[in-house]
């Protein structure tokens, strides 16, 4: 007769071994969900910051918009109302866009009053967004998924395009949305709401995003939490109405919400958007790239709905720049889409809609898109020695800036403004109608015309007018013409 272990003994032994394996697995997961986000942040923050700072030293930045934000934050640092002479003489920037959150940068700018302070801050804030997303992926899907999410988010074209184009207030919206979406996807409703509510101070259109997040919380919950979700949606709606109809017009130069002029009647906008998507204009390209960045898997998650308001108002606008996969407009969509990717994979595993092999294919596609696109993205410049060189025109512009007394007003070409804006009162050349100042100095990039607010011919006409009205040429070096009144 063969000896056998009693059922009770077998039952006792099995859980003991299983419990040990489970504890060890949990320890590995905890180590990964700390290591992967930390390493990703420590790699991305300096890379992002370097890309932006090098851009400033290669004449890739501009007065519109980096110069505007420098003047805005400098005003906060002086404890003044946020103004920008680039928008118009004494123009309150909150009358253009409602973005009071940039005041948080004032202490840092006071310590280091240079444009690079804003650029580095943006790089760090973008990098912070990788932390909640990759941590959630590690905990729910494993280390490999966490690494892929960090890679995909970190190299995403939406973030790189924004880093390649000055500084913008959405730098704050990106990490806030990353934390909000990660909390929302994990059912941490109060945390999701806490990260969502301040979005209304990033920019007036973010109230639309707040409405959707609040609606999702209300839809997925009951009782007091549902009331919390409805209150969040109401908060977003209230701030949209308040900023667009009261605050911005009150602080603007013409008592109106100027950005509203870029939105045609709703029916006309819908018809034009539909035609554009069907005909394959830049809106279609943007949609394709937004979906491709997550291997199209984000479509399987309801979290993608959070991206709809931003895409909608941009596509309905008659400003074609809003349609394109360039500039900073797509940055806030990246944390939303990568949160939707994680949620889609979790749902697929839970509901058995995606086999383990299918999930591996999705993750491979996300990594492939990020890596294949990298050589064509702005970060690729950092792999080349030329990507780090300082533009000779920047050296010349900074020498000119140093030679001008700090209190003297300067009118400079749009692509030269960031080289002067931290040391002098600056407006853009040729002067706009909203600029009533009389600058002591005019600095024009005749070697590489900025192309805005006038083209090269317009620049030449304005230079001739300045010479006829008491200005004289001081220097002409490296294509930078300096006039003095």
UniProtKB/TrEMBL annotation:
Region of interest (Disordered), ranges: 1-22
Keyword terms of this UniProt record: Membrane, Transmembrane, Transmembrane helix
Biased composition (Low complexity): 1-19
Annotated transmembrane regions: 32-51, 117-134, 141-158, 170-189, 201-221, 227-251, 287-306, 326-346, 358-376
InterPro entries with a match to the protein in the record: STSV1_Orf64
Protein's name in the database: Membrane protein
Biological source species: Rhodococcoides corynebacterioides
Record lineage: Bacteria, Bacillati, Actinomycetota, Actinomycetes, Mycobacteriales
